[in-house]
Each structure stands twice: as C-alpha cells, then as structure tokens.
Amino acid sequence: MKNFFNEFKKFIARGNVMDLAVAVIMGGAFGKIVTSLVNDILMPLIGILIGQNFSTLSVNINGAVITYGAFIQNIVDFLIIAFCIFTITKILNKFMKKKEEEKPAAKSDEVKLLEEIRDLLKNEKKNSK
Questions:
Q1: What is the pTM of this model?
Q2: What does the alpha-carbon distance between residue 20 and residue 26 come to, in Å, rounded to a whole number?
Q3: How many structural domains comprise the chain?
Q4: 61-88 mean pLDDT
Q5: Average pLDDT in the 121-125 region?
Q6: Which CATH number is 76's domain given?
C-alpha cells in the first residue's frame, strides 16, 4: 500500500499533471466568463433586435416545451470558446515554430563521424610535416 501512495505522489508531482490541473481550473473560469458574456451581454442585445428575451424562445409540442433559445445560447458559448482556443493555439504554434527555427539543426551521427574523420586526417597531415 505504501508503494501505491509513493507512485501516486510521484504522479502528482510531475509537471504535466500540475499543468493539466491549472489548465482545467483556468478553463473553468474562462468558461464562466464566456457564459456571462453571452448570457448577460450578447443575448440581451440580440433579444432587443428580435423583440423578446432570447433565452425564453421555445416551442410547445404536445405538452413538451423545447427551449431552443437556451440551446442557441450554448452554441454561441461554444463558438466563442472554440474561437479563443483556436486563436491561442495559432499564436502558440507560431511561437513554437519561431523557437524551432532559432535552434540549429542537430547533426546526424553520420555527419559527426565524417567530421571526426576529417579532423583526424587534418591532424595526421600536420603531424607528418
């Protein structure tokens, strides 16, 4: 049992798990902000344009109420979050690409071996003179 807890402790202490935990917390907070933006700002403005509260848009079919206004609000939430994630990913990819371009290309083992042979031959020429 002690070994199990030690493994769990190592797992939790790894950087990836902590990064993931931070990302989940930040994502939840960001989701709340986007939901508030949609529900409290965008949809009331759209409601003014259509003449009624958007979230109350519904249809009654055989006693079942289908609230399609709330569904559309959730679609708008999703689209805003997806756009933000797309934008952040695009910026990060551009940043990572620049970083990769800055790094010199790693030499293959064959190139290293050929350089060593070249250097040995140069040294032999110098020593033979």
A1: 0.55
A2: 10
A3: 1
A4: 87
A5: 84
A6: 1.10.1200.120
